[in-house]
Write a structure and sequence with these properties.
This protein is mainly alpha-helical and 110 residues long. It has 4 helices and no strands. Helix 3 crosses helix 4. The radius of gyration is 15 Å and the shape is globular.
C-alpha cells in the first residue's frame, strides 16, 4: 500500500509540474531562466492541496525570520526557490538534486 501511495503522489506531482510547464511557456517564459523556474514553482504550489507562497514577500512573517527560526517546510521552500533562482527547472533531476544537496548541506554542516 505504501508503494502505491507513493506512486499516486508522484503521478499527481508530475501532473502539477506538467501543467505548470505548459502555463509558464504559454506566458512566453524560456526554460532555463529564473523567471520560468519560479513561475513553475508558484503555479505548482497554487494548485497543490495546500498553496504555498514561494516568492519573497516582506509582509510574510516567515520571510523575516532566520533560517534557524522557521519550520522544516519553510526551509524546503527556500531551498527549492534558491534552485529555481539559478534557472533549474522544477520536476527535473537537476532541480531535485540541487534542493536535496542544499538541504543536506544546511542540515549537516561540517
Amino acid at each position: 500500500m505504501d508503494s502505491l501511495a507513493r506512486a499516486v503522489a508522484r503521478k499527481a506531482e508530475s501532473a502539477r509540474m506538467a501543467g505548470s510547464y505548459v502555463a509558464c511557456r504559454g506566458q512566453g517564459l524560456n526554460e532555463g531562466t529564473a523567471a520560468f523556474s519560479t513561475c513553475m514553482l508558484d503555479r505548482a504550489a497554487a494548485v497543490a492541496a495546500q498553496p504555498v507562497k514561494l516568492v519573497y514577500d516582506a509582509n510574510t512573517p516567515e520571510n523575516a525570520k532566520s533560517y534557524f527560526d522557521v519550520t522544516n517546510s519553510v526551509h524546503w521552500r527556500r531551498e527549492q526557490y534558491a534552485c529555481a533562482q539559478i534557472g533549474l527547472t522544477p520536476g527535473t533531476g537537476a532541480f531535485a538534486e540541487c534542493a536535496a544537496g542544499l538541504q543536506a548541506a544546511l542540515f549537516n554542516p561540517l
